Amino acid sequence: MSVASVALSPALEEVVNFPGFIGRFGLNLDDPILIFLTIAGSLNPMRVMESDSIASVKLRIQSIKGFFVKKQRLVYDGRELARNESRVRDRGLADGKLLHLVIRLSDLQAISVKTFGGKEFELFVERSRNVAYVKQKIASKENELGDGELTLDGEELDDQRLVTDLCRNGEDVIHLIIRKSAKVRAKPVGKDFEVSIENVTHKHDSVDGRKRYISPQAKPKDFVVEPVVVNPEIELPSLLKDLISSTIEGLEKGHGPIKSTDGSGGAYFMQDLSGNKYVSVFKPIDEEPMAVNNPHGLPVSVDGEGLKKGTRVGEGALREVAAYILDYPMTGPQTFPRDQTGFAGVPPTTMVNCLHKDFNHPNGYSFSPENTKMGSLQMFVSNVGTCEDMGYRVFPADQVHKISVLDIRLANADRHGGNILVSRDGKDGEIVLTPIDHGYCFPNKVITNSDSIHTLVSKSRNQTIIGISCRIFPLKPPYLVQFEDCTFEWLYWPQAKEPYSSETLEYIKSLDSEQDIKLLRFHGWEIPPACARVLRISTMLLKKGAAKGLTPFAIGSIMCRETLKKESVIEQIIHDAEAIASPETTEEEFISTVSAIMDRCLDQYPQN
Ligand SMILES: Nc1ncnc2c1ncn2[C@@H]1O[C@H](COP(=O)(O)OP(=O)(O)OP(=O)(O)O)[C@@H](O)[C@H]1O
Fold first, then answer.
1. 447 lies in a domain?
2. Separation of 402 CA from ligand 1 center, angstroms?
3. Any domain includes 200
4. Quick one: 219 exposed, middle or buried, by C-beta within 10 A (0-12, 13-18, 19+)?
5. Cα-to-centroid distance, 268 and ligand 1 (Å)
6. Is the CB of 268 under 6 A from ligand 1?
């Protein structure tokens, strides 16, 4: 039976054929097509109009399935449908085709705790944590709850029950009984649940429950975490050494990796020694979106191209590390050791080899080198959510601006609100934004039939040589860059229309793409010529735009497409330069042609 012949379930028929549906969503009266929405492996028939916008399709999914529009990631034919205003027919979505839905679930569950003594506080607990952990968190805040039990509908909740399972039903009320003399009640508040503690009068001795909550001990030798050292001349900075050591310590104590429910690729939270804190996030290259072992059911890429145009499956981790290396502080690019936070605050990131049974091993697992996964290990940044979860008006302009500098420089094709963490710093609780997820930077045309294969070879601590990734790229021009999928969430925030501060302007002025290319080479990434071209052109745009006094909005708008079909200004500039270039044109000549055209183009923008 073909997928196209799957019948609609009566309930779904009712929803999709809901009278007035067309009017409600402002759709045209063209013929409906039947598509199949895959959600975590299940197939859901759905009728849409070819003239529907992606936004209205997402709205339909929200009304049928209950997943909020903001949390949906739609993938068709190996490409994310990120532009909400584009139409179903523009994306080639036709009758009988499969549309993949990946849900972005926040890993954090907010829990409001209210005591009858009037004390109130909020906890942010990862959904993957268990009941024991919630009790521990409350105990560490209250310093008086030790041996409590959580109950739901009168039934005691097992310490191993996960927070995510408790919060399924918005009406659940959870009680925490503390040594029979105190009671904590949890009730949902919007998407959160609230815990109220009644009669907390009993002072307990010590919080000795911790030992019970430690997950079963793994055998000490059941895992591997090793830095990937590409250039043996470089000593790993102490910051990264500590990151690796604390990750190892957690695993040694039996605190295994915890898979993130969020994101389209495999991401694992690595725990510390106590099992109370995450220290790092590991993202294996074979679990990236559309890679062979992706845990979210995305199809495997047929041509090696990633979810975004101009990106390549399996190269995300390398780009994550590159973003960290390039995000040097105001004092400039230094050789390691580098223990200062970078200008935009990309968390310290390094490449590692990891072996653990809890990663995704669809073909079975054994403790052997072939199950070792290479990927990026990034410092975990504690946060209260992402920019997706809150109103952008509260974000300080300088925090938005630092991210704009990074995104424009790296031509980031994946800056949605979920990729900016929000934390509160210091005693005044100032908002700090942390950019994460830089696997889709430096987009360039994927060449599948060319004259050179670039293999990055690494040496791990035990001197084993491992091929990291194979990339095919031409040694000779044309080096095709691809800015088509660049989108910046912050472009639509009012802070982007404020001018850069003098400090930021100074930083931008100090940037030098040639120096950056050398820096990446020093760290072992012989950046492919097309990526180098992206870096040169985007750095040039940032520097010229900022020197002219343009705002992040104005510069970002030059880099991003307004609509799916309309080329961005930067794309037009590059095409004009390519039209002039001949096969003999050197990279230097090409870049100076781009520079001249860009100058003429920027002359049309009012000088600030
Ligand atoms: N350094 C970090 N500190 C804290 N949380 C992090 C960090 N890096 C990633 N996360 C969290 O891990 C989860 C998955 O990470 P991430 O978004 O990078 O994965 P992804 O599959 O690349 O996602 P996407 O689908 O958005 O491209 C998210 O909830 C994210 O907030």
1. yes
2. 19
3. yes
4. exposed
5. 9
6. no
569-580 and 529-547 helices cross at what angle (nearest 10)?
A: 120
CA–CA gap between residue 313 and residue 322 (Å, rounded): 16
288 lines ligand 1 (CB under 6 A): no
pTM: 0.73
Residues 82 and 134 in one domain: no
Residues 438-480 have pLDDT tens digits of: 999 998 875 543 333 333 333 333 332 233 333 334 444 556 7
Least confident of 77-81, 245-249, 292-296: 77-81
pLDDT, one tens digit per residue, over 101-157 is: 887 766 666 666 655 555 666 666 777 777 777 777 777 666 544 455 666 666 677
Q: Does ligand 1 come within 6 angstroms of the Cβ of 520?
A: no
Report which ligand 1 atom has the smallest distance to the Cα of 414.
27
Whether the Cβ atoms of residue 390 and residue 383 lie closer than 8 Å to each other: no
Structural domain containing residue 162: 108-213
Q: Is beta strand 98-103 parallel, antiparallel or unpaired with respect to 32-39?
A: parallel
Same domain assignment for residues 300 and 324: yes
Which ligand 1 atom sits closest to the C-alpha of 382? 4
Q: At which residue do the structure tokens 């990151």 appear?
A: 243
| CA pair distance 291, 228, nearest whole angstrom | 21
Q: Is 418 in the pocket of ligand 1 (CB under 6 A)?
A: yes
Residue type, 134: V
Provide the number of structural domains found in the chain. 3
Q: Are residues 480 and 357 part of one domain?
A: yes
Binding site membership of 380 for ligand 1 (Cβ less than 6 Å): yes
Task: Confirm whether 90 is domain-assigned.
Answer: yes
Ligand 1 pocket mutation, candidates 320, 437, 487, criterion most atoms within 8 A of CB: 437
Per-residue pLDDT reduced to its tens digit, 35-67: 888 887 778 888 898 889 898 999 888 888 778
> What's the one-letter identity of residue 225?
V
Rounded to the nearest angstrom, the distance between the alpha carbon of 418 and the centre of ligand 1 is: 8
- CB of 260 within 8 A of CB of 268? yes
Quick check: CB of 388 below 6 Å from ligand 1? no
Residue 158: pLDDT band (50, 70, 90) is: confident
| Nearest partner of 133 among 216, 212, 251, 250, judged by Cα | 212
For residue 160, the domain's CATH number is 3.10.20.90
Q: With respect to residue 220, please indicate whether it lies within any of the assigned structural domains.
A: no
- Whether 232 contacts 212, CB under 8 Å: no
Domain shared by 258 and 170, yes or no: no
Looking at 77, 103, 129, which one is the last position of a domain? 103
CA of 267 to the centre of ligand 1 (A): 7
Residue 406 CA to ligand 1 centre (angstroms)? 17
Question: Does ligand 1 come within 6 angstroms of the Cβ of 376?
Answer: no
| One domain, residues 272 and 285 | yes
Q: How far apart are CA 119 and CA 142, in angstroms?
A: 9
Q: Can you tell me the distance from the alpha carbon of 570 to that of 594, in angstroms, rounded to the nearest whole number?
A: 10
147 and 238 share one domain: no
Query: Which of 73, 103, 133 represents a domain boundary (last residue)?
Result: 103
**How far is 591 from 574, CA to CA, in rounded Å?**
9
Place of tokens 């994306």: 91
Residue 101 CA to ligand 1 center (angstroms) comes to 17
- Which residues have a Cβ under 8 Å from the Cβ of 109 and sit 6 or more positions away? 124, 125, 126, 127, 163, 164, 167, 192, 193
For residues 288 and 161, state if they share a domain: no
Cα(247) to centroid(ligand 1), Å: 17
Domain match, 60 and 93 both? yes
